[in-house]
Amino acid sequence: MTDVIEDGDYVLIFLDGKRNWIRKVMAGEKFHSNKGIIDFDDLIGRPFGIKIESHSGRTFQIHRPSQTDIQVYFARNTQIVYSKDAGIILIEAGISAGSRVIESGTGSGALTWILSQAVGPTGHVYTYEVREDMYNGARKNLAKFADMERITMHQKDITEGIEEENVDAVVLDLATPWLVVDEAHRVLKPSHFFVSYSPTIEQVMKTCKALHERGEWGMVKTIEVLQREILVRENKTRPTTWMVGHTGYITFARALATER
Question: Which of 82, 100, 187, 214 is the most exposed place for a label (fewest CB within 10 A)?
Answer without folding.
Answer: 214
